[in-house]
C-alpha cells in the first residue's frame, strides 16, 4: 500500500496483532460454525435502553457479524499499527478505550436524534464490531501523518501515501445502512480524545498496573520478531526503473543499518547521533546516464537548508526538534525517508 507505516509486519505492535487475530477469529467462528450464537452479539440499542441489557454494549461492540466489516477493519488496524509503535502499547490502548467508551455515548445521542427527526426506529440496530475506535484512528492519521504525493493524475488530483487508507475507510463507511452513525460517533470521540477535550485522556486511560500485567501475560503471546530484511521491490516497467529501484532499496538498507548501529552506540555512550557523519555519501553517489551511455560524476552539492515546515510536521508527529533536524539533514530534506527512519526507530 502507499502508506508510510514503517517497516512491514507487526513488530513492536502486540496490541494491534491481538486486535487482528482475536476478533477476526471469533467473527469467522460465529459466521461459519456458530451462527445461532450471533444473536448475543447484536448491537441493539433498543434492548439496552428499554430492557437494560447493558451487556450488549460490550458484546455488540467487539465482534463484527459482517465478514466484510471484519476484513476492512482488520486492514485498517494493520495500517494504524504505526500509532502503537510511536506512542507505545499503553497509550495506544488508552486511545482505543477512550474512543470505545465515548463512541457508545455518541451512538445513543445520534440514534435518538435520528429517531426524533426522522422517526426511523430501525436505527437502534447498529452494525456490530470494534468499528468506532477504528474510525477514531482516522483523526490522528489525518493530523499527524505527512501527506506525500506518489503519483499525479488528472491535473490537481494526485495519489498520496494515504489515499488507499481513505478508500478503505470509505468502503467501510458505505458497507451498511446505519454504519455512518458508528463512523460519525467514532470520529467525534477520536477528535475529543486527541484534542484532550474535557481532560478525557486522563480519565479514560489504562492504569500502569494493568498495562504492566498485560505486558507480562499477553505481550509474549502476541509479540512479533523484528523483520530481518525489507520487502522485495516490485519490478519496474523498464530496466532503468528496475535499477533505480534497486539503488533506492540499497540506500534504505544502508541507512537503516547505520542508524541502528548508531543508536546502539548512543545507548552505551549517550549523546546525539551525528547523522551528517553517518550518511554523507548517500546523495553524492555517482549517477549513470542511460540515455547516452556515458557515466558522469555528480559534484557534491552544498547541504540544503532544512525546511521549517517539514520540521514542524515531524514535531507534530511527536518527535523532538533535534531528531527532526538531524533526520531531515541526513535525508537531504526528504520528508518520507526522514519519517520512516524516525518511526521505525
Automatic annotation (TrEMBL):
Record-linked Gene3D superfamilies: DNA helicase RuvA subunit, C-terminal domain (1.10.8.10), Rhomboid-like (1.20.1540.10)
GO cellular component: a single term: endoplasmic reticulum membrane
Subcellular location: Endomembrane system; Endoplasmic reticulum membrane
CDD domains reported for this sequence: UBA_UBAC2
Domain UBA: 305-345
Pfam families, per the entry: UBA (PF00627)
One Gene Ontology molecular-function label: serine-type endopeptidase activity
Topology within the bilayer: Multi-pass membrane protein
Keywords: Endoplasmic reticulum, Glycoprotein, Membrane, Signal, Transmembrane, Transmembrane helix
InterPro entries registered for this protein in UniProt: Rhomboid-like_sf (IPR035952), UBA (IPR015940), UBA-like_sf (IPR009060), UBA_UBAC2 (IPR041928)
Transmembrane annotation, as ranges: 92-110, 116-143, 164-188
GO BP annotation list: negative regulation of canonical Wnt signaling pathway; negative regulation of retrograde protein transport, ER to cytosol; protein localization to endoplasmic reticulum
SMART domains cross-referenced by the UniProt entry: UBA
Main location: membrane
Role description: Restricts trafficking of FAF2 from the endoplasmic reticulum to lipid droplets. In association with LMBR1L and E3 ubiquitin-protein ligase AMFR, negatively regulates the canonical Wnt signaling pathway in the lymphocytes by promoting the ubiquitin-mediated degradation of CTNNB1 and Wnt receptors FZD6 and LRP6.
UniProt protein name: Ubiquitin-associated domain-containing protein 2
Species for this entry: Octodon degus
